[in-house]
Amino acid sequence: MNQSPKSLPLYEMFRLGLFQMGLGTMSLLMLGVLNRVLIDGLRIPATVAVLAIAMHQFVAPARVWFGQLSDSKPIGGMYRTPYVWVGGLAFTFVAFLTVQAVWQLGQAIPPTGWEWTPEVTGWTVLIGGLFALYGLTLSASSTPFAALLVDVADENERPKLVGIVWSMLMVGIVAGVLLSNKLLQDVRAGSGITDLQNPINNLFTIVPLLVAGLSFLSVWGIEPKYSHFLRQKVASRELREDQITLGKAIRVLTASRQTGLFFAFLLTMTISLFMQEPVLEPFGGDIFAMTYAQSAALNGFWGVGTLIALGTSGFFIIPRLGKQHTAKWGCIAVAITFLLIITAGLMANPNFLRLAMFLFGLASGVTTSGAISLMLDLTAVGTAGTFIGAWGLAQAMARGLSTVLGGLVLDLGRFLFPANLALAYGLVFFCQAVGMLVAVFILSRVNIREFRENSQQAIAKVLALEID
Question: In this structure, are residues 9 and 221 in contact, taking their beta carbons and an 8 Å threshold?
Answer without folding.
Answer: no
